[in-house]
Amino acid sequence: MIFVDTNIFYNILYETELTLKAKKVVDLLVEPVISVIVYNELVHVTFRAYARRKYGITSYHEFKKFFIEKGIEAFEEPLKDIHELLEGLDVKILSDHQSVEELREVITKYRLLPTDAQIAITCKYYGIPTIATLDEDFKRIPWLKTIP
User: In angstroms, rounded to a whole number, what is the distance separating the alpha carbons of residues 120 and 114?
Assistant: First the structure.
């Protein structure tokens, strides 16, 4: 089982300087999994990128206002793309492990942002030894091997 970080999917959905690297990582995936927080983050960043590219919306305030006015209907295309990608890779979605004490400890001890700390403790809880990520911060986590 390999946990897949948001940035792998994002760089496949949107052409960036890291897309080739992300595509190579996808070829290494065995039993790919994510958690709800990664799904949440993927939807959010993908919607923001779509709004920026299609509608020229750059600020969070503008994005939120646009979303409230137009609803999910304005984002059907990127949502469909996300689901097709996840289904095509046969990604399983796990519940996040919830522990404020562990979260605080990982944030403090390993200097991770809260979402990354949540991912790390979820991997630990499920016994997932490997994370596919383009984020160097996970290299500080002793119970996780990173790929690439």
Answer: 10
